[in-house]
Write a structure and sequence with these properties.
The chain is an alpha+beta fold. It has three domains: 126 residues, Immunoglobulin-like, CATH 2.60.40; 118 residues, Immunoglobulin-like; 110 residues, Sandwich (Immunoglobulin-like). Helix content is 18%, strand content 33%. It is built from seven helices and 23 strands. Strands 1-2-5-4 form a four-stranded antiparallel beta sheet, with helices on one face. A four-stranded antiparallel beta sheet has the order 8-10-13-12, with no helix packed on it. Strands 9-15-14-11 form a four-stranded mixed beta sheet. Strand 18 and strand 19 form a beta hairpin. The longest helix has 35 residues. It is rod-shaped and about 120 Å long. The N terminus is likely disordered.
Length: 378
Amino acid sequence: MSALQAAQVGHLRSGSRIARRLAAIGLLGWLLAATDAAAAIRFEADRNNPLAVTLIVEAPANSSWPADAVAELTRAAQPWFGLWLGEGKPGSVPLAGTYSHAGAQLRFRPSLPLLPGQTYTARLDRPGLSLRAEHRTAAPAPAAAPKLLAIYPTSDRLPANHLKFYLVFSEPMESGVFLQHCRLVNARGQAVEAPFRETELWSPDGRRLTLWFHPGRQKTGVNLNVEFGPVLREGGDYRLVIDGRWPSARGVPLGANMTKSFRARSWQVHAPAAGTRDVLRVTFPQPLDWATLHRLLHVTGKSGEIAGAITVTRGEQEWQFVPEKPWAAGPHELRIATAIEDHAGNSLARPFEVNLQRLVNRPLPAAEAETKLPFVVR
């Protein structure tokens, strides 16, 4: 190569380097100009969802972003423009999303809505240009507490052999913990020991719990009833307390204790007035056998058994007696044979269904043939 040719090649190479430097200086000059002319990064939130935002930064007047800016940002593991959760320190992972630009605007939209109650940092870093902006999303609204909508039965008078309650909640509750949050308290404020069956029975939607008293304690003559006594005693006042710390399935507690007060009753005698042939009414907490109600209940007074007519009403839950002669004032008794049965065959003397294996080692105690329910005619 001649000296002239070498000089020409050197001039061309030098010109190429100069051109590249001039191009770089041109971009740097544009970016430096952008420092003064470009708007700060701004957040634009969706009207319907404040957590769905778009980052927007404006190019300087009469300029636009480089044509390959979107492709460059999309490829980069550490893009020079984006959004970070927290401080957005160098090397930290930015949020995934999509870039776009149109004219003077360069945009970034995260793939997912932002989290409530968090601080985000938007950052743009180029030679000669550094922009920062912070955005704090609103804290989440306090979660509404679940509610105990109802306790069934709603009556404040329940039979002494009552078996179950239904607790209805506004939303699914945490399961497996009901024994920690349900208790039965007597009139003296003392907790009744182990009143509930441990089996947890929820409706398919998780909003209704069937809360059982232990059947073995509520059925007369059954071993638990004999050993520990019934859960409810006739005439006693009780409170079913649902603890306000019971959380819903999403972890929010009820917030306040809920209480159902009731009195345990058995048969109720509605005495007639003296000197009349008014009806004597006896009501039962559950239906009893129609036939045995006609032959196993008798009324006695000072002179012995009183003759009269029997009627069974209200779905076998009320027994009525009209005497042949007017009622005499004074004490009377309703004599009840313990063989009287309910619709399931359970009698006052014996449950219909028993565990025969347990009976081998521990027979049921002998039952009285008759029980008495006194009342006074005035």
